[in-house]
Write a structure and sequence with these properties.
alpha/beta, Rossmann fold, 2 domains, five-stranded antiparallel beta sheet, 12 helices, 18 strands, 29% strand, globular, PhoPQ-act_pathogen-rel_PqaA, PhoPQ-activated pathogenicity-related protein, AB_hydrolase_fold
Length: 429
Protein backbone atom coordinates (compact mmCIF):
# COMPACT_ATOMS: atom_id res chain seq x y z
CA UNK A 1 0.00 0.00 0.00
CA UNK A 2 1.30 3.45 -0.90
CA UNK A 3 0.58 6.45 1.34
CA UNK A 4 0.97 9.85 -0.32
CA UNK A 5 1.70 12.85 1.88
CA UNK A 6 0.22 15.96 0.30
CA UNK A 7 1.55 18.69 2.57
CA UNK A 8 4.24 19.58 5.07
CA UNK A 9 1.57 19.60 7.77
CA UNK A 10 0.74 16.00 6.92
CA UNK A 11 4.41 15.07 7.26
CA UNK A 12 4.59 16.67 10.70
CA UNK A 13 1.38 14.92 11.74
CA UNK A 14 2.62 11.50 10.65
CA UNK A 15 6.01 12.00 12.33
CA UNK A 16 4.28 13.09 15.54
CA UNK A 17 2.12 9.97 15.54
CA UNK A 18 5.11 7.72 14.91
CA UNK A 19 7.11 9.35 17.71
CA UNK A 20 4.13 9.05 20.03
CA UNK A 21 3.69 5.37 19.21
CA UNK A 22 7.39 4.74 19.82
CA UNK A 23 7.24 6.48 23.22
CA UNK A 24 4.23 4.42 24.26
CA UNK A 25 5.85 1.16 23.13
CA UNK A 26 8.83 1.66 25.41
CA UNK A 27 6.72 1.30 28.52
CA UNK A 28 3.87 -0.62 26.96
CA UNK A 29 4.41 -3.82 28.95
CA UNK A 30 4.24 -1.96 32.27
CA UNK A 31 1.30 0.20 31.20
CA UNK A 32 -0.53 -2.84 29.87
CA UNK A 33 -0.06 -4.61 33.19
CA UNK A 34 -1.32 -1.62 35.17
CA UNK A 35 -4.39 -1.32 32.95
CA UNK A 36 -5.35 -4.94 33.61
CA UNK A 37 -4.32 -5.51 37.23
CA UNK A 38 -7.64 -4.95 38.98
CA UNK A 39 -8.92 -2.68 41.75
CA UNK A 40 -7.22 -2.60 45.18
CA UNK A 41 -8.92 -2.84 48.55
CA UNK A 42 -7.92 -2.02 52.11
CA UNK A 43 -8.77 -2.78 55.72
CA UNK A 44 -8.11 -0.51 58.71
CA UNK A 45 -6.30 -2.59 61.33
CA UNK A 46 -5.86 0.02 64.07
CA UNK A 47 -6.05 3.71 64.97
CA UNK A 48 -3.79 5.33 67.56
CA UNK A 49 -2.68 8.77 68.70
CA UNK A 50 0.98 9.74 68.80
CA UNK A 51 2.50 11.38 71.91
CA UNK A 52 2.91 14.64 69.96
CA UNK A 53 -0.71 14.89 68.91
CA UNK A 54 -0.79 13.28 65.48
CA UNK A 55 -2.63 10.14 64.43
CA UNK A 56 -1.39 6.76 63.17
CA UNK A 57 -3.60 4.54 61.01
CA UNK A 58 -2.43 0.99 60.28
CA UNK A 59 -3.81 -0.58 57.11
CA UNK A 60 -3.64 -3.78 55.17
CA UNK A 61 -3.85 -3.07 51.46
CA UNK A 62 -4.55 -5.78 48.93
CA UNK A 63 -3.00 -4.31 45.82
CA UNK A 64 -3.53 -7.01 43.19
CA UNK A 65 -3.40 -10.66 42.27
CA UNK A 66 -0.24 -11.34 40.29
CA UNK A 67 0.07 -14.71 38.57
CA UNK A 68 -2.44 -16.19 41.00
CA UNK A 69 -0.70 -14.70 44.06
CA UNK A 70 -2.56 -12.10 46.13
CA UNK A 71 -0.29 -9.25 47.22
CA UNK A 72 -0.88 -7.70 50.65
CA UNK A 73 0.92 -4.76 52.21
CA UNK A 74 1.08 -3.29 55.67
CA UNK A 75 0.82 0.49 55.42
CA UNK A 76 1.28 2.89 58.34
CA UNK A 77 -0.25 6.31 57.73
CA UNK A 78 0.56 9.34 59.86
CA UNK A 79 -1.49 12.53 59.93
CA UNK A 80 0.53 15.20 61.77
CA UNK A 81 -0.90 17.53 64.36
CA UNK A 82 0.51 20.48 62.42
CA UNK A 83 -0.57 20.14 58.80
CA UNK A 84 0.49 23.03 56.54
CA UNK A 85 0.51 20.69 53.53
CA UNK A 86 -2.98 19.25 53.14
CA UNK A 87 -2.96 18.41 49.44
CA UNK A 88 0.48 16.79 49.18
CA UNK A 89 1.68 13.62 50.88
CA UNK A 90 4.75 11.37 51.07
CA UNK A 91 4.97 7.62 50.53
CA UNK A 92 8.10 5.85 51.77
CA UNK A 93 8.33 2.53 49.92
CA UNK A 94 10.22 -0.20 51.73
CA UNK A 95 10.68 -3.97 52.08
CA UNK A 96 9.12 -6.66 54.20
CA UNK A 97 7.02 -5.47 57.15
CA UNK A 98 8.29 -6.05 60.70
CA UNK A 99 6.22 -8.06 63.16
CA UNK A 100 5.06 -4.87 64.86
CA UNK A 101 4.72 -2.26 62.09
CA UNK A 102 3.47 0.53 64.36
CA UNK A 103 6.47 0.27 66.68
CA UNK A 104 8.73 0.74 63.68
CA UNK A 105 6.50 3.46 62.26
CA UNK A 106 6.68 5.44 65.50
CA UNK A 107 10.37 6.02 64.79
CA UNK A 108 9.23 8.30 61.96
CA UNK A 109 6.77 10.37 64.01
CA UNK A 110 9.05 13.36 64.47
CA UNK A 111 10.15 13.21 60.83
CA UNK A 112 6.53 13.27 59.69
CA UNK A 113 5.65 16.08 62.10
CA UNK A 114 8.58 18.16 60.84
CA UNK A 115 7.43 17.68 57.24
CA UNK A 116 3.88 18.74 58.09
CA UNK A 117 2.19 16.52 55.51
CA UNK A 118 0.37 13.18 55.45
CA UNK A 119 3.08 10.51 55.55
CA UNK A 120 2.79 6.81 54.71
CA UNK A 121 5.18 3.88 55.05
CA UNK A 122 4.41 1.21 52.47
CA UNK A 123 5.89 -2.19 53.33
CA UNK A 124 6.12 -5.49 51.47
CA UNK A 125 7.51 -4.22 48.18
CA UNK A 126 7.76 -6.79 46.81
CA UNK A 127 5.72 -9.49 48.50
CA UNK A 128 8.35 -12.15 49.25
CA UNK A 129 9.59 -14.79 49.36
CA UNK A 130 8.00 -16.02 46.14
CA UNK A 131 9.14 -19.17 44.37
CA UNK A 132 11.55 -19.55 47.30
CA UNK A 133 13.36 -16.33 46.31
CA UNK A 134 13.77 -12.78 47.62
CA UNK A 135 14.98 -9.37 46.41
CA UNK A 136 17.36 -9.43 43.40
CA UNK A 137 17.15 -13.21 43.04
CA UNK A 138 13.38 -12.90 42.72
CA UNK A 139 13.51 -10.01 40.23
CA UNK A 140 16.12 -11.82 38.12
CA UNK A 141 14.05 -15.02 38.13
CA UNK A 142 10.97 -13.20 36.84
CA UNK A 143 12.94 -11.50 34.07
CA UNK A 144 14.33 -14.87 33.02
CA UNK A 145 10.80 -16.32 33.04
CA UNK A 146 9.67 -13.52 30.76
CA UNK A 147 12.46 -14.34 28.32
CA UNK A 148 11.58 -18.03 28.51
CA UNK A 149 7.80 -17.72 28.12
CA UNK A 150 7.24 -14.21 26.66
CA UNK A 151 4.33 -13.92 29.09
CA UNK A 152 4.14 -10.18 29.55
CA UNK A 153 3.20 -9.99 33.22
CA UNK A 154 6.29 -11.83 34.52
CA UNK A 155 8.68 -8.92 35.35
CA UNK A 156 8.41 -8.33 39.11
CA UNK A 157 8.84 -4.58 38.72
CA UNK A 158 5.32 -4.45 37.28
CA UNK A 159 3.48 -5.62 40.43
CA UNK A 160 5.93 -3.59 42.52
CA UNK A 161 4.87 -0.42 40.71
CA UNK A 162 1.22 -1.47 40.85
CA UNK A 163 1.55 -1.78 44.63
CA UNK A 164 2.51 1.90 44.91
CA UNK A 165 -0.23 2.97 42.50
CA UNK A 166 -2.78 0.93 44.47
CA UNK A 167 -1.57 2.47 47.71
CA UNK A 168 -2.15 5.97 46.33
CA UNK A 169 -5.69 4.91 45.39
CA UNK A 170 -6.41 3.66 48.90
CA UNK A 171 -4.69 6.53 50.69
CA UNK A 172 -6.73 9.11 48.82
CA UNK A 173 -9.90 7.49 50.15
CA UNK A 174 -8.47 7.25 53.69
CA UNK A 175 -7.46 10.91 53.62
CA UNK A 176 -10.85 11.91 52.24
CA UNK A 177 -12.47 10.19 55.22
CA UNK A 178 -10.18 12.29 57.44
CA UNK A 179 -11.32 15.50 55.73
CA UNK A 180 -8.19 15.83 53.57
CA UNK A 181 -7.96 16.16 49.81
CA UNK A 182 -4.51 14.78 49.03
CA UNK A 183 -4.00 14.95 45.28
CA UNK A 184 -0.22 14.66 44.90
CA UNK A 185 2.49 12.43 46.36
CA UNK A 186 6.25 12.47 46.71
CA UNK A 187 7.52 8.90 46.40
CA UNK A 188 10.78 7.72 47.94
CA UNK A 189 12.41 4.35 48.50
CA UNK A 190 15.81 2.65 48.46
CA UNK A 191 17.48 0.10 46.18
CA UNK A 192 14.79 -1.96 44.40
CA UNK A 193 12.27 0.42 45.96
CA UNK A 194 14.26 3.30 44.44
CA UNK A 195 13.91 1.55 41.09
CA UNK A 196 10.18 1.29 41.75
CA UNK A 197 10.11 4.97 42.73
CA UNK A 198 11.47 6.02 39.34
CA UNK A 199 8.97 3.91 37.42
CA UNK A 200 6.01 5.08 39.49
CA UNK A 201 7.04 8.68 38.85
CA UNK A 202 7.09 7.89 35.15
CA UNK A 203 3.55 6.54 34.84
CA UNK A 204 1.30 8.14 37.50
CA UNK A 205 0.38 11.82 37.30
CA UNK A 206 -0.37 11.98 41.02
CA UNK A 207 3.37 11.80 41.67
CA UNK A 208 4.70 15.35 41.85
CA UNK A 209 8.29 14.54 42.93
CA UNK A 210 10.52 11.51 43.52
CA UNK A 211 13.51 10.83 45.76
CA UNK A 212 15.05 7.50 44.72
CA UNK A 213 17.77 6.26 47.11
CA UNK A 214 20.78 4.09 46.17
CA UNK A 215 19.53 3.17 42.72
CA UNK A 216 22.34 4.40 40.48
CA UNK A 217 21.59 2.07 37.59
CA UNK A 218 19.65 3.88 34.88
CA UNK A 219 20.60 3.04 31.28
CA UNK A 220 21.07 -0.62 32.13
CA UNK A 221 22.96 -1.71 29.05
CA UNK A 222 25.58 1.03 29.38
CA UNK A 223 25.84 0.39 33.13
CA UNK A 224 26.72 -3.25 32.52
CA UNK A 225 29.37 -2.26 29.98
CA UNK A 226 30.79 0.25 32.45
CA UNK A 227 31.08 -2.41 35.16
CA UNK A 228 33.14 -4.57 32.81
CA UNK A 229 35.34 -1.58 31.96
CA UNK A 230 35.92 -0.57 35.60
CA UNK A 231 35.94 -3.94 37.37
CA UNK A 232 36.76 -6.40 34.60
CA UNK A 233 33.66 -8.32 35.66
CA UNK A 234 30.16 -7.65 36.91
CA UNK A 235 29.72 -6.59 40.53
CA UNK A 236 29.15 -9.53 42.83
CA UNK A 237 26.14 -7.65 44.19
CA UNK A 238 24.26 -8.30 40.95
CA UNK A 239 25.28 -11.96 40.72
CA UNK A 240 21.64 -13.07 40.64
CA UNK A 241 21.28 -11.41 37.23
CA UNK A 242 24.69 -12.58 36.03
CA UNK A 243 24.02 -16.23 36.90
CA UNK A 244 20.94 -16.21 34.66
CA UNK A 245 22.82 -14.58 31.78
CA UNK A 246 20.83 -11.34 31.96
CA UNK A 247 23.78 -8.97 32.33
CA UNK A 248 25.54 -10.55 29.35
CA UNK A 249 22.43 -10.13 27.22
CA UNK A 250 22.32 -6.45 28.21
CA UNK A 251 25.96 -5.91 27.24
CA UNK A 252 25.27 -7.49 23.86
CA UNK A 253 22.09 -5.42 23.37
CA UNK A 254 20.42 -8.74 22.60
CA UNK A 255 16.98 -8.39 21.04
CA UNK A 256 15.62 -11.06 23.39
CA UNK A 257 15.94 -8.72 26.35
CA UNK A 258 15.46 -5.40 24.53
CA UNK A 259 11.71 -5.00 25.04
CA UNK A 260 11.68 -5.83 28.73
CA UNK A 261 14.69 -3.58 29.41
CA UNK A 262 12.83 -0.69 27.83
CA UNK A 263 9.86 -1.40 30.08
CA UNK A 264 11.77 -1.64 33.38
CA UNK A 265 14.63 0.85 32.83
CA UNK A 266 13.61 4.36 33.97
CA UNK A 267 16.15 5.79 31.51
CA UNK A 268 13.75 5.11 28.64
CA UNK A 269 10.83 6.95 30.19
CA UNK A 270 10.23 10.68 29.95
CA UNK A 271 10.17 11.33 33.70
CA UNK A 272 9.27 14.99 34.01
CA UNK A 273 8.74 15.21 37.78
CA UNK A 274 11.47 16.77 39.97
CA UNK A 275 14.07 14.27 41.15
CA UNK A 276 16.33 14.12 44.19
CA UNK A 277 18.76 11.25 43.64
CA UNK A 278 20.45 10.06 46.84
CA UNK A 279 23.54 7.86 46.51
CA UNK A 280 26.33 6.36 48.58
CA UNK A 281 29.85 7.06 47.33
CA UNK A 282 30.99 3.49 48.07
CA UNK A 283 27.93 1.56 46.93
CA UNK A 284 29.28 -1.84 45.81
CA UNK A 285 26.41 -2.39 43.37
CA UNK A 286 27.60 0.22 40.88
CA UNK A 287 30.72 2.00 39.66
CA UNK A 288 31.56 5.29 41.35
CA UNK A 289 30.45 7.50 38.45
CA UNK A 290 27.46 5.48 37.25
CA UNK A 291 25.44 8.70 37.01
CA UNK A 292 27.66 9.78 34.09
CA UNK A 293 25.69 7.55 31.72
CA UNK A 294 22.24 8.90 32.53
CA UNK A 295 22.08 12.09 34.61
CA UNK A 296 22.60 14.55 31.77
CA UNK A 297 19.63 13.09 29.89
CA UNK A 298 17.16 13.34 32.77
CA UNK A 299 14.61 16.14 32.66
CA UNK A 300 15.07 19.01 35.11
CA UNK A 301 14.57 19.84 37.93
CA UNK A 302 17.05 17.18 39.03
CA UNK A 303 19.41 17.06 41.99
CA UNK A 304 22.00 14.70 43.44
CA UNK A 305 23.13 14.06 47.00
CA UNK A 306 26.15 11.76 47.23
CA UNK A 307 26.86 10.74 50.82
CA UNK A 308 30.62 10.18 51.28
CA UNK A 309 31.88 6.91 52.77
CA UNK A 310 28.42 5.38 52.61
CA UNK A 311 27.57 2.13 50.86
CA UNK A 312 24.28 0.60 49.77
CA UNK A 313 22.86 0.54 53.30
CA UNK A 314 23.22 4.19 54.17
CA UNK A 315 23.57 4.85 57.90
CA UNK A 316 23.17 8.64 57.73
CA UNK A 317 19.37 8.55 57.64
CA UNK A 318 19.11 11.92 59.40
CA UNK A 319 20.80 13.64 56.44
CA UNK A 320 18.55 11.76 54.03
CA UNK A 321 15.27 12.75 55.66
CA UNK A 322 16.36 16.33 56.34
CA UNK A 323 17.14 16.68 52.65
CA UNK A 324 13.91 14.99 51.56
CA UNK A 325 11.96 17.27 53.91
CA UNK A 326 13.50 20.34 52.28
CA UNK A 327 13.02 18.88 48.79
CA UNK A 328 9.36 18.18 49.56
CA UNK A 329 8.70 21.76 50.69
CA UNK A 330 10.57 23.22 47.71
CA UNK A 331 8.69 20.95 45.29
CA UNK A 332 5.34 22.01 46.78
CA UNK A 333 6.31 25.67 46.36
CA UNK A 334 7.69 25.14 42.86
CA UNK A 335 10.65 27.41 43.64
CA UNK A 336 13.51 25.12 42.72
CA UNK A 337 17.18 25.96 43.20
CA UNK A 338 19.18 26.10 39.99
CA UNK A 339 22.67 24.61 39.95
CA UNK A 340 24.97 24.17 36.99
CA UNK A 341 28.30 22.41 36.98
CA UNK A 342 30.85 21.41 34.42
CA UNK A 343 33.90 19.21 34.40
CA UNK A 344 37.03 21.00 33.30
CA UNK A 345 40.38 19.33 32.59
CA UNK A 346 41.20 18.56 36.22
CA UNK A 347 38.46 20.31 38.16
CA UNK A 348 34.73 20.71 38.73
CA UNK A 349 33.12 24.17 38.62
CA UNK A 350 29.68 24.75 40.14
CA UNK A 351 27.57 27.88 39.70
CA UNK A 352 24.30 28.89 41.34
CA UNK A 353 22.27 31.99 42.11
CA UNK A 354 21.29 30.49 45.47
CA UNK A 355 22.83 31.39 48.81
CA UNK A 356 25.55 28.87 49.69
CA UNK A 357 26.12 28.24 53.39
CA UNK A 358 29.26 26.18 52.82
CA UNK A 359 31.05 24.20 50.11
CA UNK A 360 33.28 21.13 50.30
CA UNK A 361 35.26 19.11 47.83
CA UNK A 362 35.22 15.36 48.36
CA UNK A 363 37.79 13.04 46.82
CA UNK A 364 39.06 9.46 46.96
CA UNK A 365 41.96 7.71 45.26
CA UNK A 366 42.50 4.26 43.79
CA UNK A 367 45.26 2.49 41.88
CA UNK A 368 42.58 1.21 39.51
CA UNK A 369 39.00 2.21 38.71
CA UNK A 370 37.51 0.38 41.69
CA UNK A 371 36.64 2.92 44.40
CA UNK A 372 34.33 0.68 46.44
CA UNK A 373 36.75 0.48 49.38
CA UNK A 374 38.37 3.89 48.96
CA UNK A 375 38.17 6.43 51.78
CA UNK A 376 36.73 9.84 50.91
CA UNK A 377 38.30 12.99 52.33
CA UNK A 378 37.06 16.56 52.20
CA UNK A 379 38.54 20.00 51.76
CA UNK A 380 36.76 23.30 52.37
CA UNK A 381 36.21 25.26 49.17
CA UNK A 382 36.16 28.99 48.60
CA UNK A 383 32.83 30.49 47.56
CA UNK A 384 33.22 33.34 45.07
CA UNK A 385 30.21 35.65 44.83
CA UNK A 386 29.89 38.55 42.38
CA UNK A 387 26.52 39.70 43.71
CA UNK A 388 24.57 37.75 41.10
CA UNK A 389 25.85 34.22 41.39
CA UNK A 390 28.09 32.05 43.53
CA UNK A 391 30.89 30.00 41.99
CA UNK A 392 32.74 27.09 43.58
CA UNK A 393 35.75 25.40 41.96
CA UNK A 394 37.31 22.14 43.09
CA UNK A 395 40.73 21.35 41.67
CA UNK A 396 41.73 17.71 41.81
CA UNK A 397 44.34 17.06 44.51
CA UNK A 398 47.74 15.69 43.58
CA UNK A 399 47.63 11.91 43.82
CA UNK A 400 49.56 8.96 42.49
CA UNK A 401 46.50 7.01 41.38
CA UNK A 402 43.11 7.71 39.87
CA UNK A 403 40.95 10.32 41.61
CA UNK A 404 37.18 10.32 42.08
CA UNK A 405 35.70 13.66 43.15
CA UNK A 406 32.55 15.72 43.63
CA UNK A 407 31.47 19.04 45.16
CA UNK A 408 29.02 19.34 48.05
CA UNK A 409 27.18 22.59 48.76
CA UNK A 410 24.68 23.44 51.46
CA UNK A 411 22.07 25.88 50.18
CA UNK A 412 19.47 27.98 51.94
CA UNK A 413 16.18 27.89 50.03
CA UNK A 414 12.65 28.75 51.14
CA UNK A 415 13.80 28.76 54.76
CA UNK A 416 15.30 25.27 54.50
CA UNK A 417 18.90 24.12 54.35
CA UNK A 418 19.47 21.69 51.52
CA UNK A 419 22.63 19.66 50.93
CA UNK A 420 23.31 18.83 47.28
CA UNK A 421 26.30 17.60 45.30
CA UNK A 422 27.56 17.35 41.79
CA UNK A 423 27.68 13.95 40.14
CA UNK A 424 30.99 12.18 40.83
CA UNK A 425 33.67 12.21 38.16
CA UNK A 426 36.83 10.14 37.74
CA UNK A 427 40.19 11.53 36.68
CA UNK A 428 42.41 8.79 35.34
CA UNK A 429 46.15 8.91 35.94
Amino acid sequence: MTIRIKSFQHIILVLSVLISLHSVSLGSLLEKYLDNSGTPSYEILSLSNSPVGGKWILLNIQSQTWRGITWNHKVAVYIPRRLPHKEHGIIFVTGSAPRDPLSRANEYTLVAESIGAPFAILWDIPNQPLFGLREDALIAYTLAKYLETREEDWPLLFPMVKSVVATMDCLQQIFKDQGLNVEKFLITGASKRGWTTYLTGAIDKRVFAIAPIVYDNLNLQEQMKRQLEYYGTFSDQIKDYTKLGLTELMVKNDEKIFEVVKSIDPYYYDIKVPKLIILGSNDPYWVVDSSEVYFENLAAPKYVLVLPNEGHNISNTVEIFNTIRAFFAISVSGKYPVLHWKNEESSIVLETEEEIEYAKGWYATSNNLDFRKSYWQSVDLEIQNDGEKSVVKFNAPDAEGNVAMFIEVRLIKEGYTLSLTTTPRVLRK
